[in-house]
Design goal:
The complex is a heterodimer of chains A (about 200) and B (about 140). Chain A contains two helices and 13 strands; from the N terminus they run βαββββββββββαββ. Chain A starts with a strand and ends in a 5-residue tail after the last strand. Chain A folds into two domains: about 80 residues, 2-Layer Sandwich (Dna Ligase, domain 1), CATH 3.30.1490; about 120 residues, OB fold (Dihydrolipoamide Acetyltransferase, E2P) (Beta Barrel), CATH 2.40.50.140. Chain A has about 200 residues and is mainly beta. Helices cover about 10% and strands about 45% of the residues of chain A. Chain A is elongated, with a radius of gyration of 22 Å. In chain A, the strands form three sheets. In chain A, strands 5-6-7-12-11 form a five-stranded mixed barrel. With about 140 residues, chain B is mainly alpha-helical. Chain B folds into two domains: about 40 residues, no CATH class; about 60 residues, Up-down Bundle (Growth Hormone, Chain: A), CATH 1.20.1250.40. Chain B contains eight helices and two strands, in the order E-E-H-H-H-H-H-H-H-H. The radius of gyration of chain B is 18 Å and the shape is globular. Classes of the chains: A mainly beta (about 200), B mainly alpha (about 140). The interface between A and B is large, with 40 and 40 residues. Strand 1 of chain A pairs antiparallel with strand 2 of chain B. Chain A: Belongs to the eukaryotic RPB7/RPC8 RNA polymerase subunit family. Chain A: It comes from Sesamum indicum (Oriental sesame). Chain A: One of its GO terms (cellular component) is RNA polymerase III complex. Chain A: InterPro entries: NA-bd_OB-fold, RNA_pol_III_Rbc25, RNA_pol_Rpb7-like_N_sf, Rpb7-like, Rpb7-like_N. Chain A: Keywords: DNA-directed RNA polymerase, Nucleus, Transcription.
């Protein structure tokens, strides 16, 4: 689930940080720059593991800030295909399920990858929601939000950043009205094997 | 930004949890003071609920040694350490072509997992309480 990746970056250290010890200031800048952000092909950055080297410290003409070339390692969340992960149900719709890990919410299980055979029924608890039910040997096993759901990673994709939609990123309300907010990393999971699905089905 | 090494090593859930704990992440009261950001706390919360919260480095080394008998891929060992399957069914999902590669050794494998890797606290509590109760009455 978690991997280390080594990155080299030219970091500009703003002048107001000059009174702090160098390591702390650089770590703070790296945190604000990379934490909780998705880097394509590497995954979601969870934490800065360590700083390997700091070079430079030159000040470019016309600029008040010093620029450092920093080599460091980041802890990235990057599930690999075939990995089994436990998550919680976030929402259930006619297209399938959406699962959440707390720090990462864009895990989708589309209908073809749900445990089959199955059928959907209107959810008694949520007004417009749909609940999926697995049929096995005559019994019905619903998928609801009570316990953890195990899924296997089917695919991880990094959709390109959309250029057209709503150029001002401040207008979040209008974006949400039309479509889902943009997800830079999407994990597709499958529940279609023995041992997958809510834990209560197998324990 | 240049990517020097795409994959400099895989980390088990335990190692990430250990890293966050060493930075100062803990349960509720310490949140405001620690130098750990909110997004790192979310990861910490998630990992606390997995079996990784009970593991130590020695346990993991021991487990990897024991796994050598079973000829497993590194990714499979990683998955098992993270998930701690407690029955054969759960092992089938994690290990590819389990039937052909493991055959009868599955039960040994599950047995070994149950012995070496500690269970998640919510699963282990009922056993421990009843065990301690019996010891007290005997003494």
């Amino acid at each position: 689930m978690f991997f280390l990746s080594e990155i080299e970056h030219t970091l500009r250290l703003p002048p107001y940080l000059l009174n702090r010890p160098l390591n702390e200031a650089i770590k703070g800048e790296l945190d604000s720059l990379f934490l909780d952000k998705v880097i394509e092909k590497l995954g979601l950055c969870v934490s800065v593991y360590d700083i390997r080297s700091i070079d430079g410290g030159f000040i470019f003409p016309g600029d008040g800030a010093s620029t450092y070339t920093v080599r460091f390692r980041l802890v990235m969340f990057r599930p690999f295909v075939g990995e089994v992960i436990s998550a919680r149900l976030k929402e259930s719709s006619k297209d399938g399920l959406r699962l959440s890990l707390g720090f990462f919410d864009d895990i989708y299980v589309p209908v073809p990858l749900l445990a089959s055979p199955n059928h959907s029924e209107p959810d008694p608890e949520h007004k417009n929601g749909i609940r999926w039910v697995w049929e096995y040997e005559g019994e019905n096993y619903p998928i609801d939000g009570t316990d953890e759901i195990r899924f296997r990673v089917h695919n991880v994709s990094y959709p390109p950043v959309p250029l057209e939609q709503g150029k001002d990123s401040d207008e979040k309300e209008s974006e949400q009205k039309d479509s889902k907010p943009f997800a830079p990393m999407v994990v597709t999971g499958s529940l279609d094997a023995d041992g997958l699905g809510p834990i209560s089905w197998w324990v | 930004m240049k990517i020097l090494e795409h994959n400099a090593g895989a980390l088990t859930n335990f190692e990430v949890l250990d890293l966050l704990k060493s930075r100062g992440a803990g349960k509720d009261p310490t949140r405001v003071i620690a130098s750990v950001s909110a997004s790192e706390f979310k990861v910490f919360d998630y990992l606390e609920q997995t079996p990784a919260c009970n593991q130590t480095r020695d346990i993991i080394h021991k487990f990897v040694d024991e796994c050598k008998k079973f000829d497993l891929a590194k990714a499979e060992i990683l998955n098992v350490v993270n998930m701690r399957p407690s029955s054969a069914v759960e092992v089938y999902t994690i290990i590819e072509e389990c039937d052909t590669r493991m055959e009868e050794k599955i039960d040994d494998f599950v047995e070994m997992i149950l012995q070496v890797l500690p269970a998640h606290p919510s699963q282990a509590e009922p056993n421990e309480e009843s065990g301690e109760g019996k010891e007290e009455t005997v003494q």
